Automatic annotation (TrEMBL):
Membrane-crossing segments per the record: 12-31, 46-64, 71-88, 108-129, 141-162, 168-184, 191-213, 286-306, 318-340, 352-373
Protein name in UniProt: Rod shape-determining protein RodA
One protein family per Pfam: FTSW_RODA_SPOVE
Phosphoprotein listed as a keyword: no
GO biological process terms, semicolon-separated: cell division; regulation of cell shape
PANTHER family, per database record: CELL CYCLE PROTEIN, PEPTIDOGLYCAN GLYCOSYLTRANSFERASE MRDB
Location(s) in or outside the cell: Membrane
InterPro entries associated with the record: Cell_cycle_FtsW-rel_CS, FtsW/RodA
Keywords carried by this UniProt record: Cell shape, Membrane, Transmembrane, Transmembrane helix
GO molecular function, one term: lipid-linked peptidoglycan transporter activity
Topological type in the membrane: Multi-pass membrane protein
Domain of life: Bacteria
Organism from which the protein derives: Psychrobacillus vulpis
Length: 392
């Protein structure tokens, strides 16, 4: 008999979102003083945050059975929007730096459909994996391979579209989501080891192509992305050309040292410092200590997502959480890695920190789903301290 059933919303994630909103707007304000634009990006970012929180609250109107049913339609809607983007004229979908990835919306700026597609992909993959495991209670190598094929094909469709934009960075996010969800999909470990072995082999192959035959890479990468790799390997060889952004980023971070120069006191100019390179601003103005606080906040956020999911014990919800964690972890690692020169520049934003309405909306949307998981976790008086997922 169930007694004292209590719905709990995990407010810690809301608090982290609010903290990021304040920090993001403050440092975008600091970064925009040197930008060649008249827009008030800090104010726009605040509007995107508020809009994201309000719109995403609609998720609480749905339970997870309804979300699960809607996941197919959301996935197909995301694919349709990506295809429309490809065939839209320049007036609607302008090409920026050789990439056609945004819809231009008068009065709002631009919308990047692939950001929302990440969330739709997570929801649909979670449905496919959980339904497969519920139907096939007896595990076998053949069934695991069939599940793997389904996961791969579902990921492949949006992946091919964004690679054709060409947006290799978003493509890598799709792959990271897929791999993260495969890890907990209950597929046989021998298959998983084989997948990661093939992944390592692919990386070696791409490295050899870059060294000896770059024409192969140009088949799915634009010249701009290839130039980015060159600038990453030797950022100071052309510090006034293609390597300018990375070399300035490294100088900005290094000049912050331990404590930084103080708020708005940054003097090293970094192009697009309010967007993908926002981490350079806090590193220069608040040094290693300030940047460490940001990294710690991301660790706290990912930790809370895992705590919520694994307390819930519902496979569909755990799969969603693993996809969200994979997405956020890759974003954070790739963005911070690229601004310090650890990995090539890919144009991936820092979640809840970089300026960008699409990124903010998608991230808050994903986190609201996680909060909804906590809302639907019920505690029982005689449940031995465990929490179980129940359907209303």
């Amino acid at each position: 008999m169930e007694e004292n059933k209590i719905s709990k919303i995990d407010i810690s994630i809301y608090l982290i979102i609010i903290i990021f909103m304040c920090i993001s707007c403050a440092f975008i304000y600091s970064a925009q003083k040197d930008l060649p634009y008249l827009d008030n990006f800090a104010l726009k970012q605040a509007v995107w945050f508020i809009t994201g929180i309000i719109v995403s609250s609609l998720i609480f109107l749905f339970d997870f059975e309804q979300i699960k049913k809607l996941s197919l339609y959301l996935y197909l809607f995301g694919i349709l929007i990506l295809l429309l983007l490809m065939i839209s004229p320049e007036s609607i979908a302008p090409e920026i730096k050789g990439i056609k990835a945004w819809f231009s919306v008068p009065g709002f700026g631009s919308i990047q459909p692939s950001e929302l597609m990440k969330i739709f992909l997570i929801l649909f993959l979670a449905r496919i994996i959980s339904d497969h495991n519920n139907i096939n209670t007896t595990k076998s190598l053949r069934l695991d391979i069939w599940l793997l094929i389904k996961i791969f094909l579902i990921t492949l469709l949006p992946l091919l579209i964004v690679v054709l934009q060409p947006d290799a960075g978003t493509g890598m996010v799709f792959v990271s989501i897929m791999l993260g969800m495969i890890l907990i999909s209950r597929i046989d470990w021998r298959i998983i080891v084989s997948i990661f072995g093939c992944g390592i082999a692919l990386i070696v192959f791409l490295a050899l192509c870059f060294l000896y035959n770059q024409e192969i890479l140009l088949a799915f990468l634009g010249q701009y992305q290839l130039d980015r790799i060159h600038s990453w390997l030797d950022p100071f060889s052309d510090s006034l050309g293609i390597s300018y952004q990375l070399s300035q980023s490294i100088l900005s971070i290094a000049s912050g040292m331990l404590y930084g120069k103080g708020f708005t006191e940054g003097i090293v100019y970094v192009p697009e410092a309010h967007s993908d390179f926002i981490f350079t601003t806090i590193s220069e103005e608040f040094g290693f200590l300030g940047s460490s606080i940001i990294v710690t906040l991301y660790f706290a956020l990912i930790y809370r997502i895992f705590r919520i999911a694994f307390k819930n014990k519902g496979e569909y919800e755990i799969l969603i959480a693993s996809g969200v964690c994979s997405m956020l972890t890759f974003h954070v690692f790739e963005n911070i890695g690229m601004v310090i020169g650890l990995v090539p520049i890919t144009g991936i934003p820092l979640p809840l920190f970089s300026y960008g309405g699409s990124s903010v909306l998608a991230t808050i949307f994903a986190l609201t789903i996680i909060i909804n998981i906590s809302k639907n976790t019920k505690k029982y008086m005689f449940g031995g301290g465990d929490n179980y997922n129940t359907k209303e």
